[in-house]
Design a protein that fits this description.
15 helices; single chain; mainly alpha
Amino acid sequence: MSTNGVLSMAGWYFLPGLVTGYLQSILYTIFIRAGDPKPAPGSPRFVKDRRRVHIFVVLFYLAYTVYEADWQLRKESDFYQALGVAHDASEKAIQSRFRRLTVQFHPDKVNDIDKERVEAIYVRLQIAKDTLVDPVKRFAYDRFGPEMLAWIHCKTLSDFVFHGVKNITTYYFSTAVGLLLLGVLGYMQSGKFWRYMVMSTLFVVELHAMTRPTFPPILTRLVNPLLLMTWLRPPYLPFQMLALLRKLAITFFIAMSQLAPLLSDPASAAPASDTVTPQDLDRIDALAKAADQETGRLLGLELAPFAGDENSIKLLRAALKDWLVQNTVRNDPEVRAAMGRVFEGRRASA
């Protein structure tokens, strides 16, 4: 997996929650008039709004991740695009096209300033031509992508197919082990059955695409004709379609693991959240004791300068007691209401 792919996957674990908080604050600023109170954190409306924003953010990031994977494929290009020929171009058409391109990109026909860049283009064109005019290498390239160029020990069609099947078997086996470990650790619990079903289906689809002499029918009859008609992007090769399906499957699994709790019925989940177990009470009691000890320690540090000075300690205690009383009285709703009535009566009489 590329660096961009790793960063994209890692982003799933912190970006949606981070963006949700910022986006909710921005939406409140836009749609709530100045001076009107905003929903307080933890209130029913705040929780409901956050749930909706979080769903939107996850769906948007899912779409972006798929687009980013497809953009990477287009950025890397392929040998057919490099030569400017169709996927069904004949050997003669490829040779003819290569000869015309060498007139433009041959290193001996450019100045020294552009020579290094043109040499790189010429080498790529040469590799593309050599691969596509060889039926065995062309079959392997269409299904396994440019990584087949590193399989120098493969000479025949069966060699390439066997090596490719071994690679995808290793990939899907390691993916299955990874999913099992995530399940054991408590992650991605939603849709376990469908997750394994989808991965098994993808494995079968890849085996079918790698062992058939023609492109998958879904490409030749649906996807590529639609792309050619709409000019959205160049047509897919089998290896590009399979790479995109892999990324889409993994991304969809991660997205569903985050969407499932958000899409569940809040009413049915409420009773479970209100249930307090003895273990929860024990943890709360332990936290309260730890907080009390920490508060006593911090208070002792603050009172350290007054150690041994009884008068200062008495004055400090009296001031703290007065502050607590005044603060409690002033914040009491009934006291504040009474004070408000008094002030209104004075303003009315004045």
